[in-house]
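Q: Please design a sequence for this.
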């Protein structure tokens, strides 16, 4: 019988907790400040049935909350380190020269699928577009505000704008302020992503790239990208978790 793994992908806003039993992945998303919900979820899964835990993190507070819980229940864990990433890259033919400071979530995005070249659109608290060429050389990424962050940024900068909740599928233009903001955030990021990916394809002659869409905000633009000129996008909300599994050789 294979061991059951707890996989934790800790972002700036939420923790993706995934239970992997060697066959299937069961995943939940929890606010990274909510230690009680972490405890409740592990209890629901049956903490006594979990043999291993692996943590990928880009947020200190989220890491501390999870580690407190893991220590309380006596579950051993491993935190992914730059050395672990470098060793994997070297063994598997990747050239990733910035593993000393590259976020483990982005590293897991890059290695989740063995395809090369590939372009990865990761839309979370922060939006990223990553490029790996056909020789498995990682060229880096672009970074931009996350979709859900845009209303709050506008509220802080403009007296007459509020931090409205986003509405899915907003019109391109509107007379309603909340729809205007939703359009700028959702349609605007969809256009940005589509254009940036096409420019990467053109600059690096990477028209044969696999294109992945992932991240907590990716559902906002999933249905829009083809409309804005980006075709054959593979939607994979579990991309970083799959990368963790590959990093662990599971």
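A: Design:
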């Amino acid at each position: 019988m294979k061991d059951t793994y707890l996989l934790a992908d800790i972002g700036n806003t939420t923790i993706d907790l995934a239970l992997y039993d060697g066959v299937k992945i069961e995943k939940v998303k929890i606010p990274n400040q909510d230690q009680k919900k972490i405890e409740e979820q592990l209890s629901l899964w049956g903490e006594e049935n979990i043999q291993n835990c692996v943590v990928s993190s880009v947020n200190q507070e989220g890491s501390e909350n999870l580690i407190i819980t893991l220590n309380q229940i006596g579950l051993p864990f491993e935190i992914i380190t730059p050395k672990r990433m470098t060793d994997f890259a070297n063994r598997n033919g990747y050239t990733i020269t910035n593993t000393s400071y590259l976020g483990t979530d982005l590293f897991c995005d890059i290695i989740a699928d063995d395809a090369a070249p590939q372009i990865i659109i990761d839309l979370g608290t922060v939006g990223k577009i990553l490029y790996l060429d056909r020789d498995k050389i990682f060229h880096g990424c672009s970074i931009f505000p996350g979709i859900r962050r845009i209303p709050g940024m506008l509220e802080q900068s403009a007296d007459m704008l509020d931090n409205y909740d986003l509405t899915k599928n907003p019109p391109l233009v509107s007379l309603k302020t909340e729809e205007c903001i939703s359009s700028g955030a959702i349609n605007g990021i969809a256009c940005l992503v589509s254009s940036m990916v096409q420019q990467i394809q053109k600059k690096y002659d990477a028209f044969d790239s696999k294109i992945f869409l992932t991240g907590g905000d990716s559902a906002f633009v999933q249905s829009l990208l083809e409309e804005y000129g980006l075709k054959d996008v593979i939607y994979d909300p579990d991309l970083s978790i799959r990368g963790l599994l590959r990093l662990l050789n599971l």
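Q: Thanks. Anything notable?
A: The first helix runs from residue 35 to 45. The radius of gyration is 19 Å.
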